[in-house]
Amino acid sequence: MLRQKALKRISLTTLVLFLMLISFSLDLITPKNINNLEEVEYVANLNTTHLYLLNDDNYLVKVDCYLKPDSVSNMALEILNNLSVNNKKYNNLKGLIPSNTKINKIDYNNQTIIIDFSKDLLNVSKNLEEKVIESIVYSLLEIKDIKNIQIKIDGKNLKKLEKSNISLPDLLNKEIGINKTFDITSLKDTTKVVLYYVFNANSIDYYVPVTRYVNSKDDKIKIIIDSLKGSYLGNTNLKSYLSYKTDIKDYSLDDDILTITFNSLNDLNLESVTYTLANSVFASTDIQKVIFEVKDEIIAIRLNN
Hints:
Elements: H1 2-28, H2 31-44, E1 47-54, E2 60-67, H3 72-82, E3 103-109, E4 112-117, H4 129-140, E5 148-153, E6 156-157, E7 160-161, E8 166-167, E9 181-183, E10 190-201, E11 204-215, H5 220-228, E12 247-254, E13 257-264, H6 270-284, E14 289-294, E15 297-303
Parallel strand pairs: 4-5, 9-11, 13-14
Antiparallel strand pairs: 1-2, 3-4, 5-6, 7-8, 10-11, 12-13, 14-15
């Protein structure tokens, strides 16, 4: 009898503990916790975009940035906040928008975004005026639904940079160029190409687009290859992994597909070589695909995303 009573007590205790365990588990899955789980999943689905921040050599450097999926206007606002001089997230790189700059209004319509800034936007030195505009334009154009940008200052269209006396079109896009260099002696046979170089900071490689104006009758592909094979850009810290010793056999164009054939790559950094070459081509032409071959064997394909 005593044994049966003891077993009943043990069973009852076990049942109580089991029910408490279930209750505890259910308590963990509360509306609050469900929201937290949703928030984690939401953050995991961030959009990858890019910012263009200034390095110590006054070049705008392309860096990764992650945005929550949102309206175009809200994503643009987040990008502009990240372009502030207050942004300390990136070592040795800085934003250019003065900290006291206010954004009066943002309008978006038909792939054009209109940003109305306070006059503090251009409270920078003469040599940085154009860099501020380039940084804003190139960073905002990383949002796929934006094709043009219009900048206003306290309600009026920004038509000229007062300190540098540079005129601006009403609608801004990548035609304005970035990190511009001019290697020209006349206005004849002038060609514009965009070259991607590499900038290293704290053992991290960043990519830097440079708009180069040259006097040349060569096609843009040859200009890009010859320029990048110079290895370094002048007296800067920007370099190309495409050495002058790189043995490029040939290149051919079929509609919007470019094929570049190497005799050999030797010890070249394949990732950086294909990235800088392909993105220079994409930024300078209407080509949509670059195929890289070594002795007629495909080693890499880059698409213009």
